[in-house]
Amino acid sequence: MNTQDLFSLIGEIDDAWIIEAEELSSPVSSASSSSVSSASRSWKRFFPSFGLLAASILLVTGLFLIPKLLKKETASPTSDLGQEETVPAILPVTENLEETIPETFSGGPGSQDGSGNGIAIPPIPSDHTICYEGKNLTDEEASVYFSENLPRIISSLKASGLSLSDPRISETGYSHVCYGNEADHGNLVLNRNFRDYPLFDGKNLVAIVTLFKIEEDDLIHDSISFGGEWFSDFGDFLAAHQGEKLLFIYINRFYEIILTPDGKCYSPQGNEITQVTESFSGISDPYSILYCEEAVYTP
Amino acid sequence: MMSHNADDAKIIKLFWNRDEKALAEVSKAYGRFCSSIAGNILDNEQDVEECVNDAYLATWNTIPPQKPAFLAPFLGRITRNLAINRYKKNHAEKRGGGSSELILEELQEVIPGGISADSELIRKDMLEVINRFLSSLSPDKRKIFVRRYWYSDPISRIASATGLSENHIAVTLSRMRKTLHKLLSEGGFDL
Question: How far is CA A30 from CA A37, B35, B153, B169, in A?
Answer without folding.
Answer: 11, 9, 13, 21
